[in-house]
Amino acid sequence: MVPKGFAAALLAAWAIVCPAVAVRADSGEPPRTTDRPRYQSRARQSDSETDVRRLPGIRTARLDPNIRLEERDVEEAAEPVYQPRSMPSSQWIEDDPMYVEEAPQPRSFQLASITGTRIVDDSFGITDLEAFGVWALPLSERAPLILTPGFGVHGFSAEMPPGLPELPDVVYDFYLDVRVLYKHNDRYSFDLAITPGYYSDLHNKSSDAFRLGARALMVTTWTPTIKTVGGIVYLDRDDYPFVPGAGLIWTPTPDWDIHIAMPKPKVAYRFDANPGRERWAYLAGEFGGGAWAFEYEGQDDIMNYSDLRLLVGMEQRGPAGPAFRIEAGYVFARKVEFDRAPGKFEPDDAFMIRGAFTY
Question: Helices marked H in 216-359 — which ranges?
Answer without folding.
Answer: none
